[in-house]
Write a structure and sequence with these properties.
Number of domains: 1
Radius of gyration: 16 Å
Mean pLDDT: 95
Order of helices and strands: HH
Number of helices: 2
Low-confidence stretches: none
Length: about 70
C-alpha cells in the first residue's frame, strides 16, 4: 500500500474512533440532556438510537479497514 492509502486508512480510523467516543458520550449524557431541556422521554430514546447508529457505522468502517489491511 502506498503512503496515500495509509493516510486514508488512518483518517477513516480516526473518524471511527470519534464516532465511538461521540456515541458513547451521547448515550451517557442522553438522560441528562433530555431532563435539562424538558423534552419528552421519546427524545431520550431517539438519542439512544443515534448513538447506536454511530456504533454500527463505526463497526462497519473498522471492518472495512480490517479487510483492506489484512492483505498486507
Amino acid at each position: 500500500m502506498s503512503e496515500d492509502d495509509d493516510r486514508r486508512i488512518a483518517r477513516q480510523a480516526r473518524r471511527a474512533a470519534l464516532a465511538i467516543a461521540g456515541g458513547g458520550l451521547l448515550a451517557i449524557l442522553a438522560p441528562m440532556l433530555v431532563r435539562v431541556a424538558g423534552l419528552p422521554l421519546r427524545f431520550e430514546v431517539l438519542l439512544y438510537l443515534v448513538a447506536l447508529a454511530a456504533f454500527v457505522w463505526a463497526l462497519v468502517v473498522t471492518w472495512t479497514i480490517w479487510q483492506k489491511t489484512r492483505k498486507r
